[in-house]
């Protein structure tokens, strides 16, 4: 049985974190960041900043424990609170996988992913699940931004300041000043990410991203990814403590720039396969790191960004399902407020349309398992049990009719069949049926309406960043 995470353990993790930040410090590879720290009285030495417990705790006291990430369709507004869990797409895969077949991901794949995400109620947040390998690198991020804005209306993922400008345009021309003002009301026009480099470093590009996001009021995930035995200590508790340092030091900088702006605690530390030195993202060790760090973040009163559906498997089989379900349950248990990863496979290197559908099924299973169980005279069914004859049944009772649809989850994808149907239920036929679900969803997709004036402004703006042949004049269904 894993360690009981009582207050004494959480306090010890915090104290070790402060000790490291105070004695070793944290490296910010950016002169502007160092100047901000110096202005506020922090001890620095070249690129290293040293923190006291009081300085860290003051910043923590400023971070709100809720935020509403606005969607361009208000029906999809995403309110994150300490006890809520929302799920979203994964990000950053290079390859598309289909039952082991592997090819580089393309813009067409991204469009199909986005169409699917728009229709699935289980997907609450869009991310660029894949890299666009068929687009020149200098255009890939903005092209993904265009797909996000024109093909879906859920909360947006921001990958840079220029991309944030496009999102604000899509909201009807929101200014940076307005976005910053709204951040003080715990409202954000999208969600950004800052990724510290393990161990204990924020590179110059990431520093500049943090400075921009904080200044303009964008709710931001601070998401290091320390790997046990590779870019972090081999022990799991060592990973948790280093990750805690890598979240808290940038969080302090964020609050110095824009006190009260929402920040999410990125809980992405992982185990490693010590034979290959690669990350073991679907491993029990990764889930245990996630579980402990999630409790640490909640102890601070911080919203968390975790994962869902992560697997090291390269095809949609038993391993993928087991590892993905393990993380879905863990995300619910430690209340990862935003759990990202639907559609991801192959240790973040691959993605699959079918896997998005399968992960949506896992989300429903996990939610059904962690739901509140009603305790009332009606739900206990004592009178019904007392009045039913020995050896009788409850099939036709009014009580069964009342509860059968809301008490039991009916799978949208998974099979429940009898032995005489098993010959017709092979894995191959299951995958064919799954692909048919994907195809049907893509066929039913209807593009969201975009105000003509806003679309015109967006296309004019995209001309500053993209060649004419990459600007979609219309949204194609």
Throw out a few tags for this protein.
17 helices, 20 strands, 477 residues, seven-stranded parallel sheet, four-stranded mixed sheet, 14% strand, alpha/beta
What does this structure look like?
With 477 residues, the protein is of the alpha/beta class. The chain is built from 17 helices and 20 strands. Strand 19 and strand 20 form a beta hairpin. The protein is globular, with a radius of gyration of 24 Å.
Indicate the low-confidence ranges by residue numbers: none
Largest sheet: 7 strands, parallel
Helix % is: 40-55%
Mean pLDDT: 95
> What Rg, in angstroms, do the CA atoms define?
24 Å
Number of separate strands: 20
Label the structural class: alpha/beta
The N- to C-terminal Cα distance equals 51 Å
- The side-by-side strand order for the widest beta sheet comes to 6-18-17-14-13-11-9
Principal-axes geometry comes out as: globular
Number of helices: 17
Residue fraction in strands: 5-15%
Give the arrangement of secondary structure elements:
Blueprint lengths: L6 H17 L2 E3 L2 H9 L3 E3 L2 E3 L2 H10 L3 E4 L8 E4 L4 E4 L5 E4 L2 E4 L2 H13 L17 H15 L5 E2 L2 H10 L5 H8 L3 E2 L2 E4 L6 E2 L1 H12 L4 E3 L13 H22 L5 E4 L4 E3 L4 E3 L3 H17 L2 E5 L10 H16 L4 E5 L1 E2 L4 E2 L1 H17 L7 H4 L1 H6 L10 H10 L19 H18 L7 H11 L15
Parallel strand pairs: 1-12, 4-10, 6-18, 7-20, 9-11, 11-13, 13-14, 14-17, 17-18
Antiparallel strand pairs: 1-3, 2-3, 4-5, 7-8, 15-16, 19-20
Helix pairs in contact: 1-9, 3-9, 4-5, 5-6, 8-9, 9-10, 10-11, 11-12, 12-16
């Amino acid at each position: 049985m894993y360690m009981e995470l009582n207050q004494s353990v959480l306090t010890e993790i915090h104290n070790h974190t402060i000790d490291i930040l105070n004695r070793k410090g944290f490296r910010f590879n950016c002169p502007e960041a160092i100047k901000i720290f110096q202005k506020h009285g922090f001890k620095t030495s070249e690129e290293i900043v040293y923190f006291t417990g009081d300085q860290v705790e003051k910043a923590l006291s400023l971070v709100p424990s809720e935020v509403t990430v606005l969607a361009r369709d208000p029906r999809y507004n995403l309110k994150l609170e300490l006890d809520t869990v929302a799920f979203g797409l994964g990000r950053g895969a290079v390859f598309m996988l289909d039952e082991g077949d592997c090819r580089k991901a393309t813009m067409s794949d991204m469009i199909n992913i986005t169409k699917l995400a728009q229709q699935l109620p289980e997907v609450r947040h869009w991310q660029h699940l894949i890299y666009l390998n068929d687009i020149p690198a200098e255009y890939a991020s903005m092209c993904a931004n265009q797909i996000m804005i024109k093909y879906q209306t859920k909360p947006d993922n921001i990958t840079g300041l220029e991309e944030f400008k496009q999102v604000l345009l899509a909201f009807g021309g929101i200014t940076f000043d307005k976005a910053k003002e709204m951040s003080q009301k715990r409202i954000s026009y999208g969600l950004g990410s800052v990724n510290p480099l393990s161990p204990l470093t924020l590179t110059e590009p990431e520093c500049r991203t943090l400075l921009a996001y904080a200044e303009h009021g964008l709710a931001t995930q601070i998401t290091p990814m320390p790997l046990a035995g590779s870019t972090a200590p081999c022990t799991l508790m060592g990973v948790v403590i280093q990750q805690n340092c890598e979240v808290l030091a940038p969080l302090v900088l964020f609050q110095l720039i824009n006190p009260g702006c929402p920040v999410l605690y990125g809980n992405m530390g992982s185990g490693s396969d010590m034979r290959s030195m690669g990350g073991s993202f679907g491993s029990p060790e990764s889930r245990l790191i996630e579980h402990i760090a999630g409790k640490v973040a909640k102890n601070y009163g911080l919203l968390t960004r975790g994962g869902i559906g992560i697997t090291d498997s390269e095809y949609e089989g038993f391993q993928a399902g087991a590892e993905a379900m393990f993380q879905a349950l863990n995300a619910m248990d430690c209340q990862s407020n935003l759990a990202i990863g639907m559609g991801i496979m192959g240790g973040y290197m691959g993605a699959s349309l079918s896997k998005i559908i399968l992960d949506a099924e896992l989300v429903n299973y996990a939610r059904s398992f962690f739901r509140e169980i009603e305790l009332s005279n009606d739900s206990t069914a004592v009178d019904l049990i007392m009045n039913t004859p020995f050896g009788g049944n409850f099939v036709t009772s009014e009580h069964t009719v009342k509860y059968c649809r809301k008490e039991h989850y009916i799978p949208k994808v998974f099979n429940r069949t009898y032995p005489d149907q098993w010959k017709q239920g092979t894995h191959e036929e299951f995958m064919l049926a799954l692909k048919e679900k994907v195809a049907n969803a893509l066929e039913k997709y209807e593009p969201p309406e975009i105000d003509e004036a806003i679309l015109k402004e967006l296309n004019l703006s995209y001309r500053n960043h993209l060649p004419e042949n990459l600007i979609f004049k219309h949204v194609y269904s």
